[in-house]
Every structure is written in C-alpha cells, then in structure tokens.
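new request in #modeling-help
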Amino acid sequence: MAISVIWCGMLLLGIAFSLVCGRHGLSTALLKGSANAVTLIVSVAGSLVLWSGLGKLLSGSGLQKKLERLFRPLLGRLFPDASKSPAAFGPLCANVCANLLGLGNAATPFGVAAVKAMAKGTRATDEQCRFIVLNTASVQLIPTTVCALRASCGAAAPLSILPAVWLTSALSVTVGLLACRILRRWL
Amino acid sequence: MAVVTDYFLPLLLLFAALLCLRKHEDPYALMLDGGKDGLLLTVSILPPLVVLLSAFELLRSSGALEALTTILRPATDMLGIPAEVVPLMLIRPLSGSAALAVGADLMAFYGPDSRIGLCSAVLLGSTETTFYTISVYFGAAGIRKTRYALPAALLADLTGFFIACLTARFFG
C-alpha cells in the first residue's frame, strides 16, 4: 500500500509542478523512464545471474554452514534465550549467514521461522526486537544488486564500495543494538 | 583498496568451486541452478522498475526534483550529505523496488563514481526495506505489540544514511 501512495504522490507532484512551472514533455519523460528501466534491467541481468549462481555455489560448497558455525558463539551471546532452543537458534544463525552472503531470498524463510520460535505471546520480546534490527540494518558482505547496478553504469571498479558498505553496516547495526538496550526500559 | 576488491569476486568463485569439487558437488550445475533464480529475480524486478522509473523521470523533468534539492541544500550541506540523495533516503525504508529505481537513476544520471553515485550505492547496499522487513517478520509471528523495534531500526537506518555519505567520500 505504501508504495501506491508514493507512486501516486510522485505522479501528482510531477504533474502539479509542470503546470506551475509551465514545463512540457511529461509524456516523453514517462516513456523515457520506462525505456531506461528496460535498458537497466538488460545490463544488470548478467550480473544478477552470476551472483545468484555464486549464492548456490556458496551454500553447496558448505561455506554457508562453516560461516554459521563461526557465528554461533557471537550470536549465542546476543540471543541467550534463543540459543537454548534449537528450533529458534538454528534458523536464526542460518538467517544471519544467508544475509551476510547476500542471499536475501533464502534468508527470509529462516528469519520468519526464527521469529516464530522466539515468540512469547503477541508482545515482541527483547530478543525479537534485536533480531529485527539485525535484519533491517542489512549486514551484508556482498551487496550484489548494487554492485551489478554499478557495473551496468560503467563504474571503474564496481566492488570498490565494499569496505564502505561494511563499515556503514557495522556502525548502523551497532547503533541499532545500542538503541534496543536503551529503549527497552521504556517501551 | 580497489585492487583487493577486484580480486575478491573471482577468488571467491574459485574457492567455492574448489570446495564443491572436494565435496563431490558439481559447481557448474550449481551455478546454472542459481543462475535460474537470478533470472527469475531479474524478470520480477522489471515491472516495478518500469513503473517507478517512469514516475521518477516525470518528477525530474517537471522540475520538482530540482526544486526539492534546492530547498534542502542549505540543510544537507551542513550535515555533509548531497541533497540529491535525500529522495533515496526518504524512500529506502518504505519500498525496496522504489529505492532500487531511485538509486539506479542517481547512479546513471550523476555517474557511478561521482560523490552522489557512490553515496547512493553505499546507502543502498548497507540498508534494508525496514518497514517491509518488520511487517513480514512480526506479521508471520503474530506479534501485535512491536515495542521499540521500529524506532531502533529507524535509528540504525538514519545512522547508516549519514555514515554512507561519509564513507563514500573516503573509500570511493
């Protein structure tokens, strides 16, 4: 629903502004935008196919499982209650590691299973909130779609943003977790 | 740094493929299998991208985008973020495909290695569709009282936005 409102707002604002400023070429702009979208998708398709292939390769090679084992102790400290229940902790670790590897589609079902297993009634628990923040802060080693987009726009080194992305994610997830610690007293 | 990241992908591919071979898994077949998912993903983001990019182009040609950035510039300059990226920040927590459309447009329009392009890329790569994620996870678990999940997540997003613009300047 939110997206419908945004989309209508964009159209409304665009048309209103053109009327006020006396600009023309609205239809041309609309059609140009749609053509741009197709050009973009075509140039991005190859990268996305390759990345998704890499994703399967990473889970097939057992790297994903290795990563999960690596993160278990850290996640156990962050989620002490969940770590006592295998039904919650297994999918929780799988979700975090799938996200790390940029396998968003694979991460969601694990995340849903983890949140369900952590549930105690209809009020969110502290660990559920922490888990949500971990997911919304997007801790990702390779932001695949963005790198594909950069490549399609002709970036000199499409992956050069990786260190910046890592640092940004690390800092934002830290702030999110700190906010959880502080806000839990009042909410 | 660019050299290190340049070797990252091919080495990761090789490493994962060798591990697969050791486990007697067929890496080529796995690549093709995953590739099919990638193709499906590509096809599924085409319609929203067409709809949203055309509307965004309309916004740009109407002069509305220009006006918005002009109004915002004094404030954003003080915060050290490019005013052009503000629409992306506003839309990022709400819709993944809209953020992708706006980010792609900024990268194509200003160049992927420009400050605006880099900032958009880092921002897109290090944040998520917060509202969507919360509604999916809490919806599935039947949580009605979400307590501080949303404010904490949005605070993390806000931090991400500012840091993205900072790091884009140093690492790009």
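bot summary: Chain A has a mean pLDDT of 90.
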